[in-house]
Amino acid sequence: MTVFIIRRLLQSVLVVAVMTLLVFAGVYAIGNPVEILISQDATEAERAAAIARLGLDKSLPEQYLAFLGNLVKGDLGTSFVFGEPALQLVLQRFPATMELAICAMMMSIFIGVPLGLYAGLRPESIAGRTIMTGSIFGFSLPNFWQGLMLIMLFAVILQWLPAGGRGVRGEFLGIESSFFSWDGISHLILPAINLALFKTSLVIRLTRASVRETINLDYVKFARAKGLRPRRVIGLHVLKNIMIPLVTIIGLEFGSVIAFAVVTETVFAWPGMGKLIIDSIFQLDRPVIVAYLIVIVCLFITINLVVDILYAILDPRVRLADQKA
Amino acid sequence: MLKTLSTASFAVAMVIGATAYAEDITIAVASEVTAMDPHYHNTGNNNQIVGLIYDRMLHQDSNQQLGPGLAVEWGPIADDVWEFKLREGVTFHDGSALTAEDIVFSYERVPNVPNSPSSFATYTAGIAEITVVDDYTLQFKTNGPYPLLPIDLSTIQIVSSENPDATTEDYNAGPASVGTGPYKFVSYTPGESIILEANADYWGGAPEFDTVTYRPISSDAARVAALLAGDVDVISGVPTSDIATLEGNPDIVLSQGVSNRVIYLHVDSRRVYSPYITDNDGNQMFNPLQDVNVRKAISMAIDRDTIVEEVMEGIAIPAGQVLPEGFFGVSENIEVPEYDPEGARELLAEAGYPDGFRLTIHGPNDRYINDEQIAQAIAQMLTRVGIQTEVETMPRSVYFGRASGDDEGSEFSLMLVGWGSGTGEASSPLRALLHTRDDDSGLGRTNRGRYSSAPFDATLQLALNTVDDDMRQALLARATEIAMREVGLIPTHFQVNTWGSRVGLRYMPRTDEYTRPTNVVIE
């Protein structure tokens, strides 16, 4: 297992290196951030000075090598726009995005798995069909529009919940989070639902399909024949076996919820990383874009690693060290 | 000029307004600030907020007219020396008194802010030397006659010299954010909120609201929804497509005012070959835009009223020059060019292009109100007079770099751009957009079409060296007339901004597009 983890980490370094190269070349090709940042009244000399200060007067390879040199020292550069360390800016907004992602994933698991289970066990029932039809909506509604509809319904018409922003954080055991205050939670509900709807539908469909497949397998039939109670057959034999594809998908989706909450964060003015990255892309703030992507790549690598380890725990047939990953 | 139209039912506003008394106000704006350091980044988003915490020597009012700020009297005592008398008895939020030292310190800090993406040094460059005569009198020596000094000084916030080594981080965190302005700094949470509280001891009188919260909401639809939900009290940048619906809503008040921003076309008028112009068969041809008559024909082919009525849904003003009427240096002799497709065709034929030519118009799609649709409308209008025009729009991060191009010129031939006059008078657009490009003096830096005219340059130069206000105003108007006659650029319309507020409040529009609690009146 140790060998497996070490090999994984080495691969990750390679992935990060390739990713930074692509982002560097990509942002370089788009244009010059100074054109966007600098005041329209600035003189040519000031413009040249700004370009030199940001190191943009050097050639692309020189800029990239300088970046790598700093990266080895743990310095991801300073934001062109905010003038603060890029990594610090990204990490500052990390908790807000995590809150949203955790909340959305919890919703999709605790709503999606039971509903999917029910639809899988009773596929012909009215409730089962309704669940499946409903999940089509979850899939097909555009995230942006769906968010606005949530706001219109719950914030504008019913006035139950705030339309956006992050609420006052509560403190519990020294941790500051929206989860610990009512105001914080009330701000969290709508964006989390918006983010969770698609994932919930995915989990429902996946659970249902796995249940339908498992329920007819010999060991389930045997367990039934043995006279085990249905609760035990489903709770132990079925559920444990369908967990393997579910864990993979939930793991990957958790990563994507964090990385691509951009639309939800924009609609709900949620001050997370997604909003930072989209603003940074508009302003060509390369250090922030690179720092953000490095954080996200590391996150995906960690999640994949955790998923692989969970596999081994859930399915004794999987042995990590044997995998040529 | 200030046009305010009440759009909510007046009767409803009266009834509810009588009972509503707001102590706190929440304002949603489209963009985040990048720092609370008032000298860090020269952008409207930052200036509108830091300008509440700090004062300037001179203040620009809602129409960008200069008035007293920390200085109560000012004027030239020689062609290149100005004297400023400071207001006495002004204190910073920490209780210390404002003196000439703070002024000098602020101007000296401006060019030396580390990592500043867009420095205010442009506005201190005209100052050669500052002499402190006494605690409340200062003399500024300028590099030659420099009539723009008062305007330049009206852009720079005065900070306290008690924090000589304060960094941008110190301002963001709060300890250094100490000004003399109507509101005090409370907190700044990046991407989330900026909270200010009233400065009861403000020299201009205690402000109307106890607490002001700014929230950045970049999505237009979400900003409108936040206002409808009652989460925020005032929003900026109401999208034109939502105006009709909001006008019918009795809980919302809209207010509109013309901005200092002209939307115009830069025309590639110098190069022999222009990159996006071909003849009707797609072959390279000599650049027809060098001919003033062709440029004039393009201007005549544009139906400005239709752009305003259809594309902008009535929320804009047709333009014939670079600033709307009422601003300093605007010419009264310039009419908005009349829509005349027949005349345009005749001019093209006279110029030797009876069958027109092919052209691509470029524009941004995320910078100005309805920018992409405007470019499309113009393209259709030009095609109608025989210039087959294609449209290409792109995000601003790509667009402006390419539009500015390099020393050879722009990458485009005809481009849609906008210019907001930060100084509130005509020299800003004339200097940047129309003067012959000259890297040493910085004149013509944004002259993307490379229009170059000796009579225009001479008139503008004269204006820039004339300290007498009336004389300078006449010269600026004269320079504008020359450039418009030679079609150095083609203005289409002045942008009108729309603010929304909950009933009981009304926003008094500003031409500089800022959204400030000091412009909110309680009804």
Structure description:
Chain A: It comes from Boseongicola aestuarii. Chain A: Residues 94-307 form the ABC transmembrane type-1 domain. The complex is a heterodimer of chains A (325) and B (523). In chain A, helix 6 packs parallel to helix 9. Chain A has a domain at 91-268: MetI-like fold (Orthogonal Bundle), CATH 1.10.3720. In chain A, a hairpin with a 2-residue loop joins strand 1 (170-172) and strand 2. Chain A has 14 helices and two strands; from the N terminus they run H-H-H-H-H-H-H-H-E-E-H-H-H-H-H-H. Chain A is an all-alpha fold and 325 residues long. The mean pLDDT of chain A is 86. Chain A is globular. In chain B, strand 8 (183-189) and strand 9 form a beta hairpin. Chain B is globular. In chain B, strands 1, 8, 9, 10, 11, 12, 13, 14, 15, 16, 17 and 18 form a twelve-stranded mixed β-sheet that branches. A four-stranded antiparallel β-sheet of chain B has the order 4-5-7-6, with helices on one face. By secondary structure, chain B is an alpha+beta fold. Chain B folds into two domains: 32-172, Dipeptide-binding Protein, Domain 1 (Dipeptide-binding Protein, domain 1, Alpha-Beta Complex); 260-494, Dipeptide-binding Protein, domain 3 (Roll). In chain B, helix 8 runs antiparallel to helix 10, helix 13 runs antiparallel to helix 14 and helix 14 (454-464) packs antiparallel against helix 15. Chain B has helices at 10-19, 44-53, 100-109, 149-153, 168-173, 220-228, 240-247, 292-301, 304-311, 341-350, 371-384, 396-404, 427-434, 454-464, 469-485, and strands at 24-29, 58-60, 66-68, 71-78, 81-86, 127-134, 137-142, 183-189, 193-198, 211-216, 234-235, 252-267, 277-278, 316-318, 358-364, 388-394, 414-420, 489-502, 505-507, 520-522. Classes of the chains: A mainly alpha (325), B alpha+beta (523). At the A-B interface, helix 2, helix 3, helix 8 and helix 13 of A face helix 6 and helix 12 of B.
